[in-house]
Specification:
This protein is of the alpha/beta class. The protein has 15 helices and eight strands. β1, α3 and β2 form a beta-alpha-beta unit. α6 packs across α7, α8 packs across α14 and α14 packs antiparallel against α15.
Length: 347
C-alpha cells in the first residue's frame, strides 16, 4: 500500500472513530436535496406558502434537508407528477390526487368528496382521525410514493349570474365544470355542465355561454373578476373541499433519518393548516368587499346542503364500485360523515 492510500485509510479510520466517540451518526449528518413540483403558478399565495414550507424544513433540519420548490409545469405537466415521482424524475410534489383518477378512482374519492364535507377542518379530521391517512399511504405506496400529509385551500364557491338558492334552482343551469365526479353530480341535479378551459371562463360568463362556474374559493374568483358578471356566488361553499398533499418518492423518504422524517411530517401538517387558514382569511376579506360592491352572497340552508349531499352520495357510490381501494375509501368517508351528522337520519 503506497503512502497516499495509507494516509487516506488512516484518515477514514480516525474520522469514523471520532464520530463514534463524539456520538455523531454519519447518517444523521448527511445532507439531502429534493426537487418538488407544485400545482400552483409562480407568484400566487399558494406557491408562496409552499415555498415557505420548504424554507421551514431547511431551518428545522439545520440545512440537512433542502427542498427546491418548483411551480406547476416546471418539470412535467400537472397531471404527470405521480409518474415522475415513481420514476425518480421528481423527488416529490405538492399536488392533488384528483389528477390521477384515471389510474384508480380511489384517487378521486381521496382528493375531493364533492358535496361531502362543509369545511377543510372536517376533512382534516377524517384524514388524521378517521382512518384516511392510512388509506392514502396504502394507495400511494403502490406507486413507490410516501404520502406525507394533506393540504387544503378551503371550500370552493360557485359564481352565478342568477340566484341559485336550492338544488331545484340548478336545473338547466349551464355550469362550467371539469370532467369527473363534480360534473356527474351537477348532471344528477339537472344542471347542464360545460367543459371549457379555465382561461375561457370569464369570456364564457360574459357572453352567456355559461351561467355559473365551478372554479375556486371566493377570493380566487374575486381576484379573477368573476363577481362583476356573476354577482350571486354561493358562499360559504359546500360543493367542493379539495385536498392536495405532500408526497415523496419512497426511496428518498426511506433514506432520511427518523428525526428529519418527523420534522417533514410536522412541517407538512402545519403547512396544510396554514394554507386553508390564509386562504380563508382572504375569503373573509373578499366577502366583505363583494357585499360592499352589491354582490349577493347566496348561503344555502342546511336542508338544501343535505339534499345536494344525498344526490352526490349516489355518484360517490358509482366510483366506489370501480376498485377495491375506492370502495374502502368510500366506506371510510361514509362512516365519518355519519359520525359528523352530515349523512344518516335527519333530526
Amino acid at each position: 500500500m503506497n503512502a497516499g492510500k495509507r494516509a487516506t485509510r488512516l484518515l477514514s479510520v480516525f474520522v469514523g472513530a471520532w464520530m463514534v466517540l463524539s456520538g455523531v451518526d454519519a447518517h444523521a449528518a448527511a445532507k439531502f436535496h429534493w426537487q418538488m413540483q407544485s400545482l400552483w403558478q409562480a407568484g400566487t399565495i399558494n406557491q408562496k406558502l409552499f415555498e415557505a414550507f420548504c424554507d421551514r424544513v431547511k431551518t428545522m433540519t439545520d440545512g440537512r434537508l433542502e427542498i427546491t420548490p418548483l411551480p406547476v409545469g416546471a418539470v412535467v405537466a400537472y397531471n404527470e407528477t405521480l409518474d415522475a415521482i415513481s420514476a425518480g424524475l421528481l423527488d416529490g410534489h405538492q399536488s392533488g390526487s384528483g389528477y390521477f383518477a384515471g389510474k384508480d378512482p380511489a384517487f378521486a374519492l381521496l382528493a375531493d368528496l364533492n358535496g361531502g364535507y362543509e369545511s377543510a377542518r372536517q376533512m382534516e379530521m377524517w384524514l388524521y382521525y378517521g382512518g384516511g391517512l392510512e388509506l392514502a399511504r396504502e394507495l400511494y405506496a403502490k406507486y413507490n410514493i410516501y404520502y406525507v400529509a394533506g393540504v387544503w385551500w378551503g371550500v370552493e364557491s360557485i359564481p352565478a349570474k342568477m340566484p341559485i338558492r336550492t338544488v331545484e334552482d340548478f336545473k338547466g343551469v349551464k355550469i362550467r365544470s371539469p370532467e369527473g365526479m363534480g360534473q356527474e353530480i351537477f348532471k344528477a341535479i339537472g344542471a347542464a355542465p360545460v367543459n371549457i378551459p379555465g382561461s375561457e371562463v370569464y369570456t364564457a360568463l360574459e357572453r352567456g355561454v355559461i351561467d355559473a362556474t365551478d372554479w375556486g374559493t371566493l377570493s380566487m374568483n374575486q381576484d379573477l373578476g368573476y363577481h362583476k358578471i356573476a354577482p350571486y356566488p354561493l358562499y360559504p361553499g359546500f360543493h367542493s373541499t379539495p385536498m392536495a398533499e405532500i408526497a415523496v418518492n419512497m426511496d428518498r423518504w426511506n433514506e432520511l433519518p427518523d428525526d428529519i422524517k418527523a420534522i417533514v411530517e410536522a412541517a407538512a401538517r402545519d403547512f396544510g393548516h396554514e394554507m386553508y387558514l390564509k386562504v380563508g382569511l382572504e375569503d373573509d376579506k373578499a366577502a366583505h368587499e363583494a357585499e360592499a360592491e352589491g354582490v349577493e352572497l347566496v348561503d344555502w340552508s342546511s336542508e338544501e346542503r343535505r339534499k345536494f349531499r344525498e344526490v352526490a352520495a349516489g355518484v360517490w357510490k358509482t366510483y366506489a364500485e370501480r376498485s377495491e381501494m375506492a370502495q374502502r375509501i368510500y366506506d371510510s368517508h361514509m362512516a365519518f360523515l355519519t359520525t359528523l351528522g352530515l349523512l344518516g337520519p335527519s333530526e
